[in-house]
């Protein structure tokens, strides 16, 4: 890879709008995701985190605006971007084994109909070992627990040739050991110079990232955690007064419950009120 390819940001978006049919899930947003390191996407339920991952993965086309992934349209970069979804759209009872699921990680490189080579098989075995699912290789995916399934999906992502990995809530619902396994993988991916983008509801996870994107129906802030996770930004994203002091990084005003109204805080984008959806 040339130096310029290495330094190309993982993603650059300008006026990016994302929608499902008539439903706009992200209003015009500008952000850059750096080439290396861990980026955490955080925001309330329904704020567009998974939608943004879908667009980075090339699964959801921009409605308008521009999005470059590794310097190309996302739909052309998908081979280099491993996407680990929250839950895969496999019908209940699909008779697919753990090994077959992990092997699917090789298809972007290999194509669907070409047989797996020895090096493909080595890569599959390596990924299954790393996620500690080798013992489950012949089990059907449908028989596994949620945490085991999550590890299988991450193994599939790592089996893919990639320079970036997108993880939708990778640590949610996992026991301590599984969470540690996946956390270690996030760090080793980072050390290998890959980009990791994950969604989370955990402020501590976001604080530990190199870069943070805060969402609320659009990208409210994007940058280093100490800038993005300010009290003011969190109040804008989650609603004024909804957070306890102990939740916040910067306790600059313990009287915030009686503080100024949202409008007085001068939100950067007034349209943010229109796009929160409660299920
Ligand atoms: N396939 C879809 N079709 C239509 N609307 C969708 C679809 N997926 C998500 N949405 C809507 O888009 C908005 C953003 O959803 P998204 O899943 O991106 O939020 P999120 O921040 O990941 O939420 P959570 O924290 O609950 O996982 C929501 O209003 C949601 O209802």
TrEMBL record:
All residue ranges annotated as the ABC transporter domain in the record: 11-241
Keyword ATP-binding: yes
Gene Ontology molecular function: ATP binding; ATP hydrolysis activity
Positions of region (Disordered): 251-279
PROSITE patterns noted in UniProt: ABC_TRANSPORTER_2
UniProt-listed InterPro entries: AAA+_ATPase, ABC_transporter-like_ATP-bd, Metal_Ion_Import_ABC, P-loop_NTPase
Keywords, sorted A to Z: ATP-binding, Nucleotide-binding, Transport
Residue ranges of coiled coil: none
PANTHER family noted in UniProt: IRON TRANSPORT SYSTEM ATP-BINDING PROTEIN HI_0361-RELATED, METAL TRANSPORT SYSTEM ATP-BINDING PROTEIN TM_0124-RELATED
Family under the similarity heading: Belongs to the ABC transporter superfamily.
This protein's name: Metal ABC transporter ATP-binding protein
